[in-house]
Every structure is written in C-alpha cells, then in structure tokens.
C-alpha cells in the first residue's frame, strides 16, 4: 500500500472518532454557556438562586408570544415586556399593529386589556394567560425560594426538587443542579381546572445573570409561550411604563 492509500485508509478509519470528537466538543461548548456550580446542599443551592434573582432590578425586551389552544388553533403575536422586580410588570402584545391584549401587574393588582369582541371562552383563556404571566414573574423573584423546602424524595443527582407556595397554593419546582437554574414549576394538584405548569427554557447569560429567554405557560385549555428577545437587565425603564391602558379592567 503506498503512502497516499495509507493516508486515505487512516482518514476513513478515524472518521467516526473525529465526528465523535466534534460532537463532544459541541456538547461541552453548549453546556459551558452557563456557569456550573460545585455540588452543594439543597438549602445552599436554593440560596444561590434566591441571591441571583434578588440582584435583578429591571428587565425590558421585545418578544414573540405564541397562543396555542388545545383544539389546534394558534396565533403568534409581537410584544414588548417590561418588569421591575419584584412584583411589577407589563406585557403588551399586538398583531398587524393592533393591540390584542395588554397585561399589567402593579401594586399587587392585575389589569387586563382584551379585545372588545370576544366570547366568554376567549375571555377566560386570556385571563389564564394573564394569570400565568403573573405567576411566571413571581417565580422569577426571590420570595418563592426563600421559603421553599427541599423535596428529598424526588431530588436526584442531576435535579433538585423543591416545594414552595404561591398565594397559599403548593408549587413543585425542578432545578438543574449543575447550573442551578429552575426549569419547571407545577401545581401538586393536577386535577384542578385552573392548574398551571410553567417551563423556563433557553437560559443565556445576560449582564452576568443566567436568565431564561423562553417561558412556556401550560394550562388545561392550551399554552402560551413567550420568547424574549434583545433582553436588557438593570436598565432605566420608560416613564409611566406600568400605567395600564385606559380601557383596561382589574382582574381577580
């Protein structure tokens, strides 16, 4: 076998190894996008998450909002989101330059602007969306974690499971132990008609803080997925950013 044939044979034999190496490097590259943490106790892990979220003062971003119904219908909206942590936010969504809904939480009051022409079913769905966004924002503030307890039975080597409460309702939270990022929240009583599950995905480092760019809110009749874009943390917010629209009504 001449030198050229030998070289070709070497390359062919080692293609699987080369591809495996590329795959491993790509995987490690993805995982290294977020800081990792040494293994620590559940209580210490919870404190790290609470401290991280407590460092967030404001957030503002553009967004895409997908509303999906269990029957198969769906719509995508453009949106803008602003928040002042903890406990204040506004999400305004529109289609073809026309506002579809506007959700504002301030002073612990939820205000909702919805289309004037809608069925009772549609109104109920938009209220679920508003309540789901409200809950997602609560779960991205430190208060939930400061009173949460570790669920030792469900905790594993790769995931930390904690139990906390929102407005008296027990909530289970699943956390990735390597990056200490909350990934899923769910009610413990799934039989309840108004139960909500929330998934936090697509974490990126933004201004030194691990932050989820995708929020998926799942309810019995469908889901709403919020994809944040061009996120800015700790910036100055526009004046009167949290003034609800004039026609908005206060929701329960």
What's the quick description here?
This protein has 252 residues and is α+β, with helices and mostly antiparallel strands. The chain has two domains: 1-32; 42-251, Clam (outer membrane lipoprotein receptor (LolB), chain A). It has helices at 3-31, 42-54, 120-139, 143-146; strands at 58-69, 74-84, 88-95, 98-106, 109-113, 149-150, 159-166, 169-176, 181-187, 197-206, 209-219, 222-233, 249-251.
Can you describe this structure?
The chain has 252 residues and is an alpha+beta fold. The protein folds into two domains: 32 residues; 210 residues, outer membrane lipoprotein receptor (LolB), chain A (Clam), CATH 2.50.20. 26% of the residues lie in helices and 42% in strands. The chain contains four helices and 13 strands. The chain has a 13-stranded antiparallel beta sheet, covered by helices on one side. Strand 1 and strand 2 form a beta hairpin. The longest helix is centred in the N-terminal third of the chain and has 29 residues. It starts with a helix and ends with a strand. The N terminus is likely disordered.
